[in-house]
Design brief:
- By secondary structure, the chain is of the alpha/beta class.
- Helix 6 packs across helix 11 and helix 10 packs antiparallel against helix 11.
- The radius of gyration is 18 Å and the shape is globular.
- It folds into 2 domains: about 190 residues, 3-Layer(aba) Sandwich (D-Maltodextrin-Binding Protein, domain 2), CATH 3.40.190; about 110 residues, Periplasmic binding protein-like II (D-Maltodextrin-Binding Protein, domain 2, 3-Layer(aba) Sandwich).
- The chain has a 5-stranded mixed sheet with strand order 2-1-3-10-4, sandwiched between helices. A 5-stranded mixed sheet has the order 7-6-8-5-9, sandwiched between helices.
- The chain is about 40% helix and about 15% strand.
Length: about 300
């Protein structure tokens, strides 16, 4: 089974990688390999059958499946909007203060940039007027981790901040050049709507579900096992990282996974789907809420408990 992952060297979709490296897929009788596949090509690849599943932000389904026609979320890899606003360490402003973002150049990758634009609007700021959202040279290259690239750009003073994964945040903090300014999943009720814009999910097509529901069920059980294993022993992430990540990222991943353990929950709630609908409607991607059962493969929801 071919599983694409749109953000590989990070904690965001780590349970999918761990399911392969810890042997959870194999234990469930699934021969699966997880590999990096950039967001811009990932969903067309899923639609066209070039990959069997994607580990990706849930809202991104709409890139290739309008109104969720033909695809389903099958299990959550991690809860909540995963990206952080990281600013250069010398940029003034208290953590969570939206006004501190005025006049800054903030980098965001394709996909997360849509989330960041709406994030700014929720905070009362106007994208492109109050905050310049910029691309990074080579940011969409297949072999580049965006968060790490953003940390490098921050260190070189090419940008004032970035909106990316916790790996990039951790590297910039360790180098003394960055600080976390907003973490929507942890920074209080003010960011409640942003927290529910999206979440890390495993996604497949209706065609594959119809063709082999038994295999889909096995994949879900493997993900749930991997999440449980990481919650029981976050240090397992180091071994996984050593096999799949560059050395600098491998030594950091266990701490990031340990920090994210409360979010490694496989359940897809009605509230999470409501949040995605609200976000998608704000972008004009849907004109009315998409029903829960049209977005989520409900037939597998009993597997999320791991029983």
């Amino acid at each position: 089974m071919r599983i694409g992952c749109v953000d590989f060297v990070s904690n965001t979709f780590f349970p999918a990688i761990a399911a392969e490296e810890l042997g959870s897929f194999k234990a469930e009788g699934v021969d699966a390999h997880v590999h990096l596949l950039r967001t811009l090509v990932a969903f067309p690849a899923l639609r066209d059958g070039e990959v069997d599943m994607l580990a990706a932000p849930a809202h991104s389904v709409l890139r290739a499946f309008p109104r969720w026609q033909g695809a389903k979320l099958i299990v959550a890899l991690a809860q909540g909007t995963p990206w952080l606003v990281v600013l250069r360490a010398d940029v003034p402003g208290e953590r969570g203060d939206a006004t501190a973002l005025r006049g800054l150049r903030i980098a965001a990758a394709a996909g997360p940039n849509l989330v960041f634009r709406q994030f700014l609007i929720e905070l009362g700021l106007t994208p492109d007027r109050d905050v310049e959202i910029v691309d990074l040279p080579n940011g969409e290259a297949a072999d580049v981790n965006y968060g790490v690239l953003a940390a490098d750009a921050l260190e070189k003073n090419l940008i004032d901040g970035f909106f990316a994964n916790a790996m990039g945040a951790d590297i910039s903090i360790a180098r003394g050049v960055g600080r976390i300014h907003i973490d929507a999943r942890r920074d209080g009720a003010r960011f409640g709507a942003v927290r529910r814009f999206t979440f890390a999910a495993l996604i497949t097509t209706d065609t594959r579900i119809a063709r082999d529901p038994t295999q889909i069920a096995s994949v879900i059980r493997a993900i749930v096992k991997a999440q449980k294993a990481l919650r029981a022993n976050p240090a397992l992430a180091t071994d996984v990282g050593k096999r799949r990540f560059p050395p600098d990222a491998a030594k950091r991943i266990a701490a990031l996974v340990n920090r994210d353990l409360p979010f490694y929950d496989p359940r897809i709630s009605e509230e999470a789907v409501d949040g995605i609908n609200r976000f998608a409607r704000s972008l004009g991607l849907v004109t009315e809420p998409v029903p829960y059962g049209h977005m989520v493969a409900e037939r597998f929801r009993d597997l999320w408990t791991g029983e």
